[in-house]
Design brief:
The complex is a heterodimer of chains A (112) and B (111). The model of chain A has no long low-confidence stretch (mean pLDDT 95). Chain A is built from no helices and eleven strands. With 112 residues, chain A is an all-beta fold. The mean pLDDT of chain B is 93. In chain B, 0% of the residues lie in helices and 45% in strands. Chain B contains no helices and nine strands. Chain B is globular and about 45 Å long. The chains are: A mainly beta (112), B mainly beta (111). Chain A binds chain B through residues 31, 33, 35, 40-45, 48, 50, 54, 56, 58-59, 90, 92, 94, 97-98, 100-106, and chain B through 32, 36, 41-46, 85, 87, 91-104.
């Protein structure tokens, strides 16, 4: 167990509503990442963080924002959910650049 | 970012060796080759990594070409539990790492 927890694990929400997904770690790892996974697309990076209050965009950041106010939590917010954001979301943590990445179990989000 | 190319899918018979290829012709001298796999309904997990020399661990072996432009993940005796998507990625130890993945190779094990 790499000490990484995603919540919620499943969520159904309506189009236009805000949604926040949480990634919590107990490892004090510096780097945290949010990915989405859709059939045929593999893992696509949304946003990542390289320290408290230090974040940057990934490949598919439009429609998403993130915050990291403390080491252990990395929040992903969909300001106004759309059906195209229906996906499985994974969080990952990395202690330092180049070391093993540990992934959470994923959050299945459905936007109806 | 240096990219990798993998076949979309492969099949192998149970209890036989599996060789999963990865091409990375634009690899830089400081890039490590990492492999992850993703079992059904789970997040990815680390398999193995290397820089220049071949590497072995309890899960697999990694064979790296002499020019480092390609590598092969070797599962010595595939089981049904090895059915997964395998990702080959390049990483280095500098800067703020974006950690991006491609689409990987979907490995099917035939009983």
């Amino acid at each position: 167990d790499a000490g990484i927890t995603q919540s919620p694990r499943h969520k159904v929400t309506e189009t236009g509503t805000p949604v926040t997904l949480r990634c919590h770690q107990t490892e004090n790892h510096r780097y945290m990442y949010w990915y989405r996974q859709d059939p045929g697309h593999g893992l696509r990076l949304i946003h990542y963080s390289y320290g408290v209050k230090d974040t940057d965009k990934g490949e598919v950041s439009d429609g998403y924002s993130v915050s990291r106010s403390k080491t252990e939590d990395f929040l992903l917010t969909l300001e106004s959910a759309t059906s195209s954001q229906t996906s499985v979301y994974f969080c990952a943590i990395v202690r330092q650049v180049g070391t093993e990445a540990f992934f959470g179990q994923g959050t299945r989000l459905t936007v109806v | 970012d240096a990219k990798t190319t993998q076949p979309n899918s492969m099949e192998s018979n149970e209890e036989e060796p599996v060789h999963l290829p990865c091409n990375h012709s634009t690899i830089s001298g400081t890039d490590y080759i990492h492999w992850y796999r993703q079992l059904p309904s789970q997040g990815p997990e680390y398999v193995i990594h290397g820089l220049t020399s071949n590497v072995n661990n309890r899960m697999a072996s990694l064979a790296i070409a002499e020019d480092r432009k390609s590598s092969t993940l070797i599962l010595h005796r595939a089981t049904l539990r090895d059915a997964a998507v395998y990702y080959c990625i390049l990483r280095n130890n500098f800067g703020n790492e974006k950690l991006t993945f491609g689409t990987g190779t979907r490995l099917t094990i035939i009983p």
